[in-house]
Amino acid sequence: MQVSWQYLLALSLLSVVYGNFERKDVRSISSGLSFGRCRGYCQQSINATINPIQLIATKQPNFAQESYPPLRQSFTFASNQWEELLALLTPQVFSNLDDTIGCPGCADGGIEWIQVDWNNGSKRVIFESGQAIKGIESLIEKLQKMREEYLTQF
Questions:
Q1: pLDDT per residue over 115-144, tens digit each?
Q2: Mean pLDDT, rounded, of the chain
Q3: Are 126 and 113 in contact (CB under 8 A)?
Q4: Which of 33, 112, 117, 134 has its CA 20 to 30 Å from the CA of residue 104?
């Protein structure tokens, strides 16, 4: 009996540490792209949040450049847009991905990332720009389209 109690305790602790989550617990989904050897707005990201429901897009250079000041723009984001994005997230698949996949930034390739924040934790996955990751292909594609849509508006 004691062995099963210890097993359940260890399993519970792992769940807390590694942050198992469900879609209903998600507070924000963000995505970004950056390039190391770049002039101009080399870092670009979007962050969709549920409370308040909005999308924030940012662009900034890798180093201070007068011609490229950091920019940040808030956009309205409808609840159906949030639900559509959330539907593409499979928490079990996302939480089991490695934190870094492939060789992001190697040979001056782009670095892409997705981060999910939920009530009791967060997870960021970093990967080579344009790479398809099994299990989250649709989420990657949607976030790429959203970055393109919102970041070109300012």
A1: 999 999 999 999 999 999 999 999 999 999
A2: 89
A3: yes
A4: 117
Strand order in the sheet with 26-34: 71-76, 53-60, 43-50, 26-34, 111-118, 121-128, 100-101
Which value, in Å, is the radius of gyration of the alpha carbons in the chain? Answer: 18
Question: Nearest Cα to 105, choosing from 31, 151, 32, 37?
Answer: 37
Helix ranges (H only) for the chain are 2-18, 79-87, 91-95, 137-151
Question: Distance between CA 12 and CA 44 in Å, rounded?
Answer: 37
| Distance from C-alpha of 70 to C-alpha of 61, rounded to nearest angstrom | 7
What is the number of alpha carbons within 13 Å of residue 153 lying toward its C-beta?
15
Distance CA 90, CA 139 (A): 9
Each residue's pLDDT tens digit, 8-43: 444 444 444 444 679 999 999 999 999 988 899 999
